[in-house]
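[agent] plan:
  1. take the single chain provided in the ticket
  2. run structure prediction with default settings
  3. attach structure tokens to the ticket
  4. add a short note for the reviewer (M.T.)
[agent] executing step 1
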Amino acid sequence: MTNLFTINAPLYIRKANYISEVIAELFPHPDGLIYFELNWHFGQPEETIHIIHGELEGEGPWKIGGNVINMLGCQGCDSTLALQYQDWQHYLQTAADEYPPKELIEAIARKLSQ
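[agent] step 2 finished; step 3 output follows
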């Protein structure tokens, strides 16, 4: 089984309400998973960081709690998501000093997992 949390490819989530978002950060949670939206650090955590409850199933695409997670660029992917990811990568390369360090991001995920 492919471990979702070790994949280096960009991912997106299609939520149960059929809205899709590119995933900026992804972590396991005791009750499912935690994902951070693009530009999460500019918003309010309760609006930009999400806990998805449920059992993770599949090997790509993955399913959890009525949501589907897939690799960006797979067949049927929305080109808008690909452009959002491209803009995100550009931001990370040009404004890396604005983005929180990995240690802080992991600490936030750990706190949410308690």
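[agent] step 4 note for reviewer: The first strand starts at residue 11 and ends at 14.
[agent] ticket updated
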